[in-house]
Design a protein that fits this description.
The protein is α+β, with helices and mostly antiparallel strands and 104 residues long. The chain contains three helices and four strands. Helix 1 crosses helix 2.
Length: 104
């Protein structure tokens, strides 16, 4: 049975630069001890031959290749290069430069 002491919780909190009260230290020591006890129970389960799983839903990231396509304007095809020529904004590498919305 793994028991996490209050001293260990205080030490971990100090390493993580977290301020925890004495009340929280007692609470977390009990909670962490319970987690480790449960992990010991799980270690008893025979997992030989069971493949590792990172997720079980079967969902996958979907991505498409970026491709420049022609546009229809007034029934005529407008090519991407023509659209770039029509902008008053600065163009670099076939892209219109815009102001950053993320500040560092």
């Amino acid at each position: 049975m793994t028991k996490i002491t209050e001293e260990q919780v205080s030490h971990i909190a100090k390493l993580a630069r977290l301020e925890v009260s004495d009340e929280e230290v007692k609470k977390f020591a009990g909670q962490l001890s319970n987690v480790f006890e449960y992990m010991e129970i799980l270690q008893e389960v025979d997992t030989d031959g069971v493949p590792e799983t990172s997720q079980v839903t079967g969902l996958e990231n979907v991505s498409e290749k970026d491709e420049a396509v022609s546009w229809q304007a007034s029934g005529e095809d407008v090519k991407p290069a023509e659209l770039l020529q029509a902008t008053e904004l600065q163009v670099e590498g076939d892209q219109i430069l815009v102001q950053s919305v993320i500040k560092k």
